């Protein structure tokens, strides 16, 4: 079948692709400003201190449960976001994608033979409308038809990208302004997505966007504008690419003309809804091959749900001398539990930093105006009592593989000893060290026969073996990923082994367990013996 051009495709479109059956009148805006912050996760937005975003949420609409495409990497998700189509339609499969070596043919073509983006659609149907683009990551340009921009500029960092885009907007007032910031992603990789360095990058964007909105409001321009802020994916530890919900869910923040004040979008959305929403606001039609839906919920009457941000626990993981919990919400209360139960206002009220006496999971919620936030879960470890470390470890340096080794073929280990947790916290390696492998061995004590769940997270590869049987295979060179496994265990002692290797960049290892259907906890000294 001959593939259609964008012009031919547009002849048989509904008002907006995949949402043509919606009976509501599609809202319109004279101008749309679309800001994408690379690696801005839904939890990242909530944990950072963001007075501007909080103001926009209070006076606009927020989705905290917009999902991105798998895998949770940049290229395919920027394309989903701006084409309104899933990977199977637009064909951008990963960060190594190049148009000349594509495997999936675009389902519909623009002038360059690529899948059309919102930039193409606006210029095709509204040639007099100005489309401007400012971007930090040059890799984006290989996916789009850059001739669709009336003006575009590559900038060296996130702050300059935002400031140049906003200064130019105030001068020329294009109908559609696209701004892409990569600095947030760099910060996540450099510092970790739960570290203050990552939040500082979000804070910077919040500040510069706030300065811009103030100027727009002073000039009386916001009455004709809708601003959208979102991310292409989230992140966990030092990377992204997996199926952790912190990687899969991004926020979509909408503020401006016609957007309902204080609206929390309760339905889950997809990343390709963004392009279709922009198209609807600007009065253009996306190709039928798109699958996105217009975000009508942002314009519907406000319900009873209010925005309550998730708490942030410090330290986020690892050994905790003292636990601090904060929330970016004025006059809010924080409740927490240490027994695995979901916190409510009947749980312990957080009033000051506290200490933990055993390895545990801290679950916490923010409570405000009669509503709870999502639950924050943090695996934390107490300092091990002297002489109670029961996990034998053997460390092998200079291992250069990209998958777990056969530990039986190694000679003498570079370091041996006992540690108290199935983590990297106590083994003698620097946090920046690469190319090593570790095997942990202990006896686990099962007090009650039954089916047990295990959650193994690692960067890079890991494996859980109980009584010689593989329970979880999380092997391979990858960013932090978690996998679940189940084992039927009888009461008594069982040999437990955890294999791990570090390839490059971030390093991390965590293991938790519990009866199937119950909460998961890290192993404690009473669960293990030499």
Topology:
Blueprint: H1 6-10, E1 31-37, H2 42-47, H3 51-58, E2 61-67, H4 74-83, H5 87-90, H6 118-125, E3 131-135, E4 151-154, H7 158-172, E5 176-181, H8 183-191, H9 196-218, E6 225-230, H10 245-248, E7 249-256, E8 263-265, E9 269-270, H11 273-282, E10 312-314, E11 318-319, E12 324-326, E13 333-337, E14 348-349, E15 360-368, E16 371-372, E17 376-381, E18 391-397, E19 415-419, E20 436-446, E21 450-459, E22 462-466, E23 469-474, E24 481-489, E25 492-502, E26 508-515, E27 521-522, E28 528-529
Parallel strand pairs: 1-5, 1-6, 2-8, 2-9, 3-4, 3-5, 11-17
Antiparallel strand pairs: 2-7, 6-7, 10-12, 13-14, 13-15, 15-16, 15-17, 18-19, 18-20, 20-25, 20-28, 21-24, 21-26, 22-23, 22-25, 26-27
Overview of the structural elements:
With 530 residues, this protein is α+β, with helices and mostly antiparallel strands. The chain has three domains: 6-299, 3-Layer(aba) Sandwich (Alkaline Phosphatase, subunit A), CATH 3.40.720; 312-381; 391-529, Jelly Rolls, CATH 2.60.120. The chain contains eleven helices and 28 strands. It has helices at 6-10, 42-47, 51-58, 74-83, 87-90, 118-125, 158-172, 183-191, 196-218, 245-248, 273-282, and strands at residues 31-37, 61-67, 131-135, 151-154, 176-181, 225-230, 249-256, 263-265, 269-270, 312-314, 318-319, 324-326, 333-337, 348-349, 360-368, 371-372, 376-381, 391-397, 415-419, 436-446, 450-459, 462-466, 469-474, 481-489, 492-502, 508-515, 521-522, 528-529. Strands 1, 2, 3, 4, 5, 6, 7, 8 and 9 form a nine-stranded mixed beta sheet that branches. Strands 18, 19, 20, 22, 23, 25 and 28 form a seven-stranded antiparallel beta sheet that branches. A hairpin with a 2-residue loop joins β22 (462-466) and β23 (469-474). α4 runs parallel beside α11, α7 (158-172) runs parallel beside α9 (196-218) and α8 packs antiparallel against α9. The longest helix is centred in the middle third of the chain and has 23 residues, at 196-218. The radius of gyration is 25 Å and the shape is globular. The termini are far apart.
